[in-house]
Design goal:
The protein has helices at 14-21, 28-33, 37-52, 58-72, 75-87, 92-99, 110-125, 130-137, 142-164, 174-189. The chain is an all-alpha fold. Helix 3 (37-52) packs across helix 10 (174-189), helix 4 (58-72) runs antiparallel to helix 5 (75-87) and helix 4 packs parallel to helix 7. The relative contact order is 0.17.
Length: 190
C-alpha cells in the first residue's frame, strides 16, 4: 500500500490526463507523479529525452540506469529496466553482475567497466574521481559523460520517489515504452 494515496486522475487537469494517455499501459510511478501536476509533463518529456535522444549508446544507458538504481535500492526502476538491457542485446550475466554490485565483472567490456565505475562513483560519492573520469573519457565524448551523470541522477530521483512512497511495481513495460519513444523520435526527424 502506498504511503500517500494516488491522485484521482479523473479530476486531473487535461494536460495530465493527456500525458498519461501516451503511455503503453497505466504506470504507477507516473500516476503518483500526477500529484505534482505542473511537474509531470516536463519530467515525462525529460525521461523521454533520456530514452530516445541521447548520444549515449542505448545499452550503455540501460546498464547505467540499472547500476544507479540498484545502488540506490530502486526496485521499481530495476524491474522496468533490467528487461530493456536484455532487449538491447545485454546479457543475463550482466544483469546478475549489476544486481550483485560487481561493475567490473568479466561479462562487461572495458568501456562498460569504465562507465559503470564512473556511475558508481557519481552515485555513491556524489562526484567521480579524476581517475574514473579519465577512464570513462577514453570511451565517451564530453556530451556522453554529461549524459551519464544526468541519466543516473534522474533515475536516482525516481527511485527515491518509488521507495519513499512504496509505489508498487508494475509489470515491465520499459522495453515497449523505449520502442514507442524511439519511434516517435524517428518520426519527428522525417
Amino acid at each position: 500500500m502506498t504511503r500517500i494515496p494516488f491522485p484521482d486522475l479523473e479530476k486531473a487537469p487535461p494536460e495530465v490526463r493527456e500525458m498519461l494517455s501516451r503511455l503503453p499501459a497505466p504506470v504507477s510511478i507516473f500516476n503518483m507523479m500526477a500529484h505534482a501536476e505542473t511537474v509531470l509533463k516536463p519530467l515525462m518529456k525529460l525521461g523521454g529525452t533520456f530514452l530516445g535522444k541521447l548520444e549515449l549508446d542505448p545499452l550503455l544507458r540501460e546498464l547505467v540506469i540499472c547500476h544507479a538504481v540498484n545502488i540506490e535500492g530502486g526496485e521499481y526502476e530495476w524491474v522496468q529496466h533490467a528487461p530493456v538491457v536484455l532487449a538491447l542485446g545485454g546479457t543475463q550475466s550482466q544483469i546478475d553482475a549489476l544486481r550483485a554490485g560487481d561493475d567490473q565483472a568479466a561479462c562487461f567490456s572495458d568501456a562498460q567497466k569504465a562507465v559503470l565505475r564512473f556511475t558508481r562513483e557519481v552515485v555513491v560519492d556524489v562526484g567521480a574521481s579524476k581517475e574514473a573520469l579519465a577512464e570513462a573519457k577514453k570511451h565517451l565524448s564530453d556530451r556522453e559523460i554529461v549524459e551519464v551523470i544526468l541519466v543516473a541522477g534522474f533515475y536516482i530521483m525516481l527511485a527515491r520517489l518509488t521507495e519513499t512512497l512504496d509505489i508498487p511495481n508494475d509489470p515491465p513495460i520499459g522495453d515497449k515504452l523505449v520502442r514507442q519513444i524511439e519511434a516517435r523520435v524517428a518520426g519527428n526527424k522525417k
